[in-house]
Write a structure and sequence with these properties.
This protein has 119 residues and is mainly alpha-helical. It folds into 2 domains: 80 residues; 37 residues. It is built from 3 helices and no strands. Helix 1 packs antiparallel against helix 2. The relative contact order is 0.05.
């Protein structure tokens, strides 16, 4: 197997896995929206029987507005922090790891070529 074929297989595997995960996440989102729609309808019917139609809609609107505010605050708190510059030691370690990885790939490729010539 050539190195291009191996790289293509790895990329195809990773992208396929990512696409499947995104598809599942999208379906979860759609079903959550459908469930929310039905729960809101049932809640409105229940509140309308006790407080009237307008008050029931105002209560549900207030609940959804409060949930939206809570989720926005949570999203804002989880935002990405500014990245500080890496220390020289971290950079040297990363460069060394990258060099070792490239060397391992080159040795593997060379050994694969030798095996092909002997056969």
């Amino acid at each position: 197997m050539r190195i291009e074929q191996i790289a293509a297989a790895v990329v195809e595997y990773l992208l396929g896995r990512l696409v499947r995960r995104l598809l599942v996440a999208a379906m979860v989102f759609v079903f959550a929206l459908i469930a929310l729609y039905y729960f809101a309808g049932a809640g409105e019917m229940s509140l309308a029987a006790q407080f009237g139609e307008l008050t029931a809609r105002l209560i549900l609107g207030g609940i959804f507005a409060a949930l939206t505010l809570i989720m926005f605050i949570t999203w804002y708190a989880m935002r990405g922090k500014t990245v500080t510059s890496a220390t020289p030691v971290d950079t040297q370690v990363r460069e060394l790891q990258l060099a070792m990885l490239v060397e391992a790939v080159m040795v593997g490729y060379t050994l694969a070529q030798r095996g092909r010539r002997a056969a």
